[in-house]
Amino acid sequence: MTTTAPERAPRLTAVLRQTDRVTPLELFFDLVFVLAITQCTALMAAEPTWTGLAKGLLVLGVLWWPWTGYAWLTSVVDPEEGAVRLVMFAAMAGFLVAALCVPGAFGESALLFACAYGIVRAAHIGLFVLASRDDPALRQSVLGLAGGTALGVGLLVAAAFTDGWEQGALWALALLLDVGEPFLFGSEGWKLVPGHFAERHGLIIIIALGESIVAIGLGASGGVDAGVVAAATLGMAVAAALWWLYFDVVALVAERRLSRAAVGREQNEMARDSYSYLHFPMVAGIVLLALGLKKTLAHVGDPLDLVPAAALLGGAAVYLLAHVSFRLRNLHTLNKQRLVCAALLLALIPVGVALPALATLGVLAGVLTVLIAYEAVRFAEARDRVRHQLASELASD
């Protein structure tokens, strides 16, 4: 008589990603980040001062790091297989609550925000621990990240019991920890799928641009007249210009550079610098622009106050400066025309305070249109090669 050992109950598992296709669950996850971006814009719009801008950008930065952390995670594991799907849903719930708390993140909702944020970060670390079970190098990197993350969440909890400059300093320190962790714990142990990673960050740019469109609608809530129609059209032109500046050539070149980088430290550091770091100022610039658009649509015939004018023109400048840094990191060359354009937009802020808001928006749309036209003519041959030859190479990889 023979006996067979009873089968062990299957352990929680994570299935490693096999393709570079962004999954429906990842897109679903991003919908919660849409709300977070909208709430950051609303926070700044409710307090259109330099302090209000600082608060909105601090919250956006703190929420950016869990989003980009999940982008790294889902570039390692398939989010729709095993236990990962259920944990992703739990993280989405935590992210949703944190987003709902954004308007009161420095006030009555501070503690709830910190607790919900902690759930999001804990789920992220837990899934990475699961994914690194058979990978000692990845496990070591994850454990280092876990320590810094716990400290950052603790700082936000502590900030909930303070106010004023002390509270802002604790938030800034928590954000600084998130920014510094990738340097402190090295880059060798991380893993990613280049095509998937680049696409995830391209999609988040589209989501941020969608927020600028939403801001136009919210700003026009007082009624639609000729001025609002003109402002909405110009706002759409600005959003389209920002889309063009990223997706026409930049996204394709950056994806190829990431795909061809040596696997390991070189590729991981390129992904960290080009995407985790430099995509944040792109998103932040779009959010600032959305604030300016919202204020413009509300009073198209009146001059903008200094802070909304700085948000409108300065937001576009920050976006362009991030592009300059992006190219410098990836191609080691300086994009002079975008640097000059960014400097021009910053110099025009005093003019934006004097002109009607509609005219200021028209100036912004004109500057961006001239930039795009110049690049399309000046670099026509290189642009054609990138958009066709390079795009076909990426599709065949």
Mean pLDDT: 88
> What is the gyration radius calculated from CA atoms?
22 Å
Order of helices and strands: HHHHHHHHHHHHHHHH
Whole-number total of structural domains: 2
Strand proportion, as a percent range, falls in under 5%
Report on this model:
This protein has 397 residues and is an all-alpha fold. It folds into two domains: 20-191, no CATH class; 227-397, no CATH class. The model is unreliable at 1-11 (pLDDT under 50). The protein has helices spanning 24-46, 50-73, 84-100, 110-131, 136-159, 164-184, 194-219, 226-247, 250-260, 265-277, 279-298, 306-331, 336-347, 349-354, 357-378, 380-396. It is globular and about 60 Å long.
SSE blueprint and pairings:
Blueprint: H1 24-46, H2 50-73, H3 84-100, H4 110-131, H5 136-159, H6 164-184, H7 194-219, H8 226-247, H9 250-260, H10 265-277, H11 279-298, H12 306-331, H13 336-347, H14 349-354, H15 357-378, H16 380-396
Helix pairs in contact: 1-2, 1-3, 1-7, 1-11, 2-4, 2-6, 3-4, 4-5, 5-6, 7-8, 7-9, 7-11, 8-11, 8-15, 9-10, 9-12, 9-16, 11-12, 12-13, 12-15, 13-15
Keywords:
397 residues, mainly alpha, 16 helices, 77% helix
